[in-house]
Design goal:
Blueprint: H1 3-8, H2 15-22, E1 29-31, E2 37-39, H3 41-46, E3 54-60, H4 70-83, E4 88-92, H5 97-101, E5 109-110, E6 113-116, H6 118-122, H7 128-148, E7 155-160, E8 164-166, E9 176-178, E10 189-191, E11 193-195, H8 200-207, H9 211-219, E12 222-226, E13 231-233, H10 240-246, E14 254-258, E15 263-266, H11 281-290, E16 293-297, H12 302-317, E17 323-328, H13 330-336, H14 349-355, H15 357-367, E18 373-378, H16 385-397, E19 401-405, H17 407-410, H18 416-426, H19 442-454, E20 458-461, H20 463-474, E21 482-485, E22 505-514, E23 519-524, E24 543-544, E25 550-551
Parallel strand pairs: 3-16, 3-17, 4-15, 4-16, 8-11, 17-18, 18-19, 20-22, 21-23
Antiparallel strand pairs: 1-2, 2-14, 5-6, 6-14, 7-12, 9-10, 12-13, 14-15, 22-23, 24-25
Length: 554
């Protein structure tokens, strides 16, 4: 059966029962239909003094273009924890419609390790993405209206930093011109769109502690410069109140369940290749209060999502992970050994031996944070036993704990061995620390990440990037952490350099101060903030029957 067919046959419990099992009271939840709910602020307030559970981060090696099962492993691990009598909550990001209709598909897991209702989650869910889109575009509308109505702030229309957004892959919107058609339609200027999950409003949404913190962060968003070089913030446009009003309900974490009725919090959805790639601080913090184990994921490989989770999210929210799980697959390692995507299911031990150095790099990188590491070997049905044995032998050589994971085919039952390894790791000595100190300059932080995590020999800055570094320093933002946007397919900024590349340079072409979010974004290589659709989009296969049954989602 397909993923959606499995999901449609699931026996879901009413979400009120899932919430009750977690200890939530009726007045602390707001149901969205029968199987979805918002967990409200009074629940967080009531549990604020309760001790935290263990935080488990799930990350991965560099993926193939199709994705390799990190979300599936996260969900299956939570189900397995529940099977062996541990109280666990899963904390995930919400899917973006861009990948759903593009090449990657949805983000609700797969096989027998899924969160449900799968169709709702992968499409409109509880409307959070739309609220974030609306808040971002309200800010843009207020800025353009301010210019049209006399431009009292003397905004330089050549130095507007905020762009509009939409939650869809649409390359035609990367660069646009607004205000055409005469004076009544506003000031003519160049503009553009990013995908909603790459917007600063999304980052602010995911890092805000509460509604008050959300408003404060929104007010700090740097939107433009004046003609005389003065920074202009969203607060100067008096935008933060209305933006927060649009996000008032969205800011509450969403509660759903897995196929095995394990509770899952899904909230926020920044991409890890162009944003910080973690679910909301509110959801993670609440998960730690609700369960003995909160299992969360960070997008793409550990060089992207995990580094940002550890150096940005943990730093800002005061979080300490108890264990890190690195998901690896035989197929992805062969892809990193040079096998084309179409042939990764075929036996090829030599390619595996060549590509497995990618796993070695990720193990080394995660150990640099002082947290116990476990490798989850995510098994596909056709994986050759000889190749799986080789991966296990390699993990032994690296001194890394590991377990075979079969959650896709078996659900929680297929993740029990992994769950036991993770529980064991959570009890080991933990010396968590950040990769770099706040006191380093922005350039030094970038160089540290590039050298220690990517393995780069040098970092090159374009003239545009050098100018941006000076602007960031002039605004007093040097102490902020760095969020590097780069390709997910390689440890380098060149998607074609697979495995564990050596003797390469990272090129930083531009930087942007995300002042509201509280970090600096550095754009490496040719990474884009508005993806395009592939030649054959996933949307071509999605439809709905006359009686309302959706098919083709994956």
């Amino acid at each position: 059966m397909t993923d959606i067919e499995i999901a449609q046959q699931a026996h879901m419990l009413p979400i009120t029962e899932i919430a009750k099992a977690l200890g939530a009271r009726e007045e602390e939840i707001s149901p969205y239909g029968r199987y979805k709910a918002k967990l409200l602020q009074p629940l967080s307030d009531r549990l604020s003094e309760k001790p935290d559970g263990k935080l488990v981060l799930v990350t991965a090696i560099n993926p193939t273009p199709a994705g390799e099962g990190k979300t599936t492993t996260t969900i299956g691990l939570g189900e397995a924890m529940q099977r062996i009598g541990k109280k666990a909550v899963i904390a995930l990001r919400e899917p973006s419609l861009g990948p759903v209709f593009g090449i990657k598909g949805g983000a609700a897991g797969g096989g027998y390790a899924q969160v449900v209702p799968m169709e709702d989650i992968n499409l409109h869910f509880t409307g959070d993405m739309h609220a974030i889109t609306a808040a971002n575009n309200l800010l843009c509308a207020l800025l353009d209206n301010h210019i049209h109505q006399g431009n009292a702030l003397n905004i330089d229309t050549r130095r507007i930093l905020i762009t509009r957004c939409m939650d869809m892959n649409d390359r035609a919107l990367r660069q646009v011109v607004v205000g055409l058609g005469g004076k009544a339609n506003g000031f003519v200027r160049e503009d553009g769109f990013c995908i909603t999950v790459a917007s600063e409003v999304m980052a602010v949404f995911c890092l805000a502690r509460d509604l008050g913190d959300l408003k404060e962060r929104l007010s700090r968003i740097l939107v433009a410069y004046s003609v005389d070089g003065r920074p202009v913030y969203a607060g100067d446009l008096h935008a933060e109140g209305a933006m927060a009003a649009l996000l008032k309900e969205a800011i509450d974490p969403n509660l759903v369940q897995t196929l095995e009725n394990t509770p899952a919090l899904m909230h926020g959805g920044p991409f890890a290749n162009i944003a910080h790639g973690c679910n909301s601080v509110r959801a993670t913090r609440l998960g730690l209060k609700l369960a003995d184990y909160c299992i969360t994921e960070a997008g793409f490989g550990s060089d992207l999502g995990a580094e940002k989770f550890l150096d940005i999210k943990c730093r800002m929210a005061g979080l300490t992970p108890s264990a890190i799980v690195i998901v690896a697959t035989d197929r992805a390692l062969k892809y990193n050994g040079g096998v084309p995507k179409a042939d990764v299911a075929k036996p090829n031990l030599e390619a595996l031996k060549k590509g497995i150095v990618n796993l070695g790099a990720h193990i080394e990188n995660m150990r640099k944070y002082g947290v116990p590491v476990v490798v989850a070997i995510n098994r596909f049905a056709a994986d050759p036993e000889e190749e799986l044995s080789y991966i296990e032998s390699y993990c032994n050589e690296q001194g890394a704990q590991f377990a075979l994971s079969e959650v896709f085919a078996k659900g929680g039952e297929g993740g029990v061995a992994l769950a036991e390894k993770v529980i064991e790791a959570c009890e080991k000595p933990n010396h968590f620390h950040y990769l770099y100190e706040d006191s380093l300059s922005t350039e030094e932080k970038i160089r540290t990440i590039a050298r220690e995590i990517y393995g780069a020999s040098d970092v090159l800055f374009t003239k545009k990037a050098r100018r941006a570094l000076k602007d960031i320093a002039a605004l007093g933002a040097e102490k902020l952490p760095v969020c590097i946007a780069k390709t997910q397919y390689s440890l380098s900024d060149d998607a074609s350099l697979l495995g564990r590349p050596k003797d390469f340079s990272i090129t930083i072409r531009d930087l942007k101060l995300s002042n509201g979010a509280g970090f600096v974004v550095a754009y490496a290589g040719d990474i884009m903030v508005m993806p395009g659709l592939p030649k054959v989009p996933a949307a071509n296969n999605i439809t709905v029957s006359d009686d309302g049954v959706i098919s083709g989602l994956f």
